[in-house]
Amino acid sequence: MNTPLRRVGMAMMVMIVLLLGNATWVQVINADEWRKNSLNRRVLLDEYARKRGLITVADGTVIADVKETTDRLRYLRVYNNGPVYAQVAGYLSVTYGTSGMERVENDLLNGSDDRLLARRVSALITGRDPVGGNVQLTLDAKVQQVAYDQLTAKGFTGSVVAMKPGTGEILAMVSTPSYDPNRLASHDSNEQQAAWKALTAPDNGNPLINRATQGLYPPGSTYKVVVAAAALADGKNKDAQYTAAGTINLPGTSNAPFPNFNGQPCGPGQTVSMETALAKSCNTAFGEMAGQVGKSKLTTQSNKFGFNNDDLRVPLAVETSSLGAIPDEAALYQSGIGQRDVRVTPLQNAMVAATIANGGKRMQPYLVSKILGPDLKSIEDTKPDDVDTAMSSANAGVLRDMMIQSEVNTGGEGRLSNIQVASKTGTAEVGGSSEESRNKAPHAWYIAFAPAQKPEIAIAVIVENGGDRGLGATGGKVAAPIGRAVMNAYLVGR
């Protein structure tokens, strides 16, 4: 064989090897990535040819169903009572993909999950159409509906999260404004695009965001229960004395006032007890308390409640709550009242309330109670997980009793009859400077649990930017009535 032919032969061999290598990469090594690529029309058609699994709530009510069609995409996703569950269930869209539980549990719902392998093989052998698995959530339909109605009745932007303190089961997770996921699930591309354009409009309030898990807010005075827990762990008791002054200067400054609400003193004397300071939500006392506890111990206590957890999944991903930077003692005072750089999700604040209610034990919050096969037989049940001891049971009892006094001192409507509640309100300033904050309506918070002595439900409520009270909003006036109504919906008749 002459030299030119050998060169041609070698070049052909190299090209064949490269082609085989590329085919192996695409079809074997990288197959899963290509299969899941949103632009892969073939996979999309295959998924819509299979009956997708259901998403149900605790009592079996179906919130994400399927309907057979006569168009090219055989099955249509249908959301029952869509806006009430939108941010949790999410959406399934031909154009815009998935969100919420539809995304997190996509492999199970579309039938490709490894846990369904035996069922897929059985369907192949018997000639039956493959069917996806089902997801049962922990949500209580009644509690979820009341939480949604309470927020939407006055057009509030905000969130409600309710949990079982002893297990971590999430009973309600609502975010408003909400939307109807059925429009995104439509097989009509024009309707999908119109819905997406409306939902992503700059002035539409970001309804696609799940504020319960993705919203980060200054917690305001609700954070004072964490500071109180740190002080109790540091050896203080409910009678420990702190300043009652209406206004003090931040340490290290000569003219940086640090006032109570309306600048009023917390009592007739020079000092006030921790119990009274919590009941009256005294900023000056809690600034001083945080200063005495110190940055290190306050950070440790916050972390025990779940702050700075980058890996929290419920299984929806959760933004990380944190204290932010505390460069000096003045910043420590400001952080001690839940301002400056302290940021929490509504879920995190519900976890704080639930942990105190549970005698100091922090449970892992979760949304999925069961994974079910196509035949509705259980494949996997979620078991409660005790992840940390945030405080001793004795200190949790002391803090509970102080929160009972806080509820007694809190105004607002909807007090529960014959049910004792432990709570803390918060009125969180919004804005970078004190001048800017005074010109912006505050966020209104309410965290609570009930019955106080044997808690069955813990809750966090936030209403953004004052709700219907504007600059005059407080947690007691705006958020507390919502929280009480939700707790009442769960407790009455049980």
Could you describe the 3D structure shown?
This protein has 494 residues and is an alpha+beta fold. It has a domain at 214-367 and 385-491: DD-peptidase/beta-lactamase superfamily (Beta-lactamase, 3-Layer(aba) Sandwich), CATH 3.40.710. It contains 20 helices and 19 strands. It has a 6-stranded mixed sheet.
Task: For this entry, give a set of tags.
494 residues; alpha+beta; Beta-lactamase; 5-stranded antiparallel beta sheet; 39% helix; elongated
Set out the fold topology.
Elements: H1 3-29, H2 31-36, H3 41-48, E1 55-56, E2 62-68, E3 75-79, H4 82-89, E4 92-93, E5 97-98, H5 100-104, H6 106-110, H7 117-126, E6 134-137, H8 141-152, E7 158-163, E8 170-176, H9 182-185, H10 189-199, H11 211-214, H12 224-233, E9 241-243, E10 247-249, E11 257-259, E12 271-273, H13 274-279, H14 283-293, H15 295-304, H16 329-335, H17 346-357, E13 361-363, E14 368-372, E15 378-381, E16 386-389, H18 393-409, E17 422-428, H19 434-438, E18 443-450, E19 457-463, H20 475-491
Parallel strand pairs: 1-6
Antiparallel strand pairs: 1-2, 2-3, 4-5, 6-14, 7-8, 7-19, 9-12, 10-11, 13-16, 14-15, 17-18, 18-19
Helix pairs in contact: 8-20, 12-14, 12-15, 12-18, 14-16
